[in-house]
Amino acid sequence: MKIIPASDSSLLVVFGNTISPDVQQRVLALFHALQANQDSRIRNLHPAYASLLIDFDPLLMTHEDLAMFVESVADNRQPAVAEGHALRKIPVCYDAEFGPDLPDVAAHARLPIDEVIRLHASATYQVCFLGFTVGFAYLGGLPEVLHTPRLATPRRTVAAGSIGIAGGQTGIYPTETPGGWRLIGRTPLRMFDPQAQPPTRLQAGDRVRFTSIDREAFERLRQERP
Amino acid sequence: MTIRVLKPGLSTTVQDGGRYGYTHLGISPAGAADSLSLRIANLLVGNGEYAPALEMTLLGASLEFEEGAVVAVSGAQCDCKAGQNKVRANEAVEIAAGSVLQCGSMTDGARCYLSIRGGLDVPLVMGSASTDVRGQFGGFEGRRLKSGDVLRVGKSRATEVRRPAGVLEEVRSSGPVRVTRGAQNDWFSHEMYAKLLSTPYQVTEQSDRAGLRLQGEAVSPSEKTQLLTDGIPLGAIQVPQSGQPIILLVDQQTTGGYPKIANIITADMHRIGQLRPRHQVRFAEVSIADAVEALRHQELWLKGIFVT
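Predict the joint structure of the above. Result:
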């Protein structure tokens, strides 16, 4: 574990430089420990694949105070077990219109499109963290054969609910935004609702399964959502 | 009491001190880009310092006041008139019922703050009145103001206007913007880092509340490996492949994959919020201890000015 001052009001705790379930559990353990601690001097937490950035009020605590606290918590805590996290089922319509990059992913994997869909919908993923933009969940656990590089030129708009692949990652765009991930499907679920508590459907640590639905079910679920 | 928007200006939003405790959901802090000016405007009219106010950008709004109100403008210099009367900056000013406050173009900075005694009355979303324009929530209907919008003003028990005891303009210090080393500063050679600190950078048109894209001497990391996405602190100076630095502002993305060479100190963030396209900016390094001392000094200065 490395603790680096990232600014005059933040500390970056680095657990490694690779994406691995073990490193991820250590990030989540520290993240959950700090959240449970509810120290009002700590303003924001940014978990990522292998690090946790902690924003704090530098007039109320020093980098050294926080570093000591992080060391004590990180040492004394058993890594959280993935099985303890919620399993979220996300229906996805892998329709050609929603997955314009399915042919590219299939060609890259040298598999028929149906097999790409079957593989994507059969794995169990874990939410590594949420970041980049409002409610965007980075999911680990994409079957290796589906790893596909991101688009050379990002799209100007990606529809809310789009499911994408970038390298070894897969994720869901909760709101309409520009984006460079390869799009393979879309969920009718609302992934972000500012009025809900919590406002995002997925939380860091959650496990995720995608279930394939047809266009009719997609439209029906979209109508039904609050 | 309500205020009707006659002209919205270029980009006018409701902002407060920002939204904290949600970056782990990818939600940026938002809030005033120059929070020091927001606080000054609020203190002048007797509001809590982070009360919801209007942040206007480059071109101000025209607003019709249904009832009399006490307002203050602070931040970038901006020609403001209430009817035929000039509204001076950094002063509490009474606006007569039925009159129109017209805010014009800003000259020296990018953002001007208008606070109204009582504060703007908008529903809090995740504990804040700030507008998240990309997420489309918070503030007034989660968006920039449009002509015809009607804003509600909260109630206030304040009766006196507060007069600052010192010269508020002194806050607009010139000279280099101070930075501390970023989390990946060691990815850059001494020569590259020296370039960032010794040459001027120009703010480009591709700049907004999410970040300021700069143009100047390219600074490339000596490490050729790609950074694993990590958290981005407010005010980070990150360097994409082009070598042209980007300063992350209040609507920042919460995580990213570009190495961060340096970070603006908190006490100078209000100056970053006032930079506009074609402005030049220079950087100077200070220690973290000096950065925190500068912040403490700034807080004492603000409290001292508004001692009653």
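Residues 21-37 of chain A form the longest helix (17 residues).
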